[in-house]
């Protein structure tokens, strides 16, 4: 299981716009380990931070790295991953970020 702490953004979003919700996503993921042999116990849960690019009916698109343009005060996604809707356990807004 993973926990994802995220902030909503839209591609090329201006940072001067309205407040953006800060969210936590609890989701199931394949367990992984860097061990050479199959572990006897589940590896510890991973915590990831990033930006929610979009939340659709079937998946949520996450950007783990973003570029920032100080002249336009905007962000855009560089890379990330997709969390399938059926893997999401809970999606909760925990606050606001200006």
Give a structural overview.
It is a single chain. The chain has 98 residues and is mainly beta. The chain has one domain. It is built from no helices and seven strands. It has strands at residues 2-8, 13-14, 20-27, 46-55, 59-69, 74-84, 88-97. Strands 2-6-5-4-1-3-7 form a seven-stranded mixed sheet, with no helix packed on it. A hairpin with a 4-residue loop joins β5 and β6 (74-84). The chain is globular, with a radius of gyration of 15 Å. Residues 7-14 have low confidence and may be disordered.
Short description:
By secondary structure, this protein is mostly beta strands. 0% of the residues lie in helices and 60% in strands. It has strands spanning 2-8, 13-14, 20-27, 46-55, 59-69, 74-84, 88-97.
Silhouette: globular
Oligomeric state of shown chains: single chain
Secondary structure tally, helices: 0
Biggest sheet features: 7 strands, mixed
């Amino acid at each position: 299981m993973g926990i994802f702490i995220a902030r909503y953004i839209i591609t090329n979003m201006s940072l001067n716009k309205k407040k953006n919700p800060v969210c936590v996503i609890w989701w199931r993921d394949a367990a992984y380990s860097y061990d050479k042999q199959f572990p006897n116990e589940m590896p510890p849960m991973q915590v990831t931070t990033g930006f929610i690019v979009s939340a659709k009916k079937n998946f949520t698109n996450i950007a783990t790295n973003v570029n920032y343009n100080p002249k336009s005060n905007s962000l855009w996604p560089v890379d990330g991953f997709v969390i399938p809707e059926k893997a999401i356990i809970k999606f909760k807004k925990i606050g606001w970020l200006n």
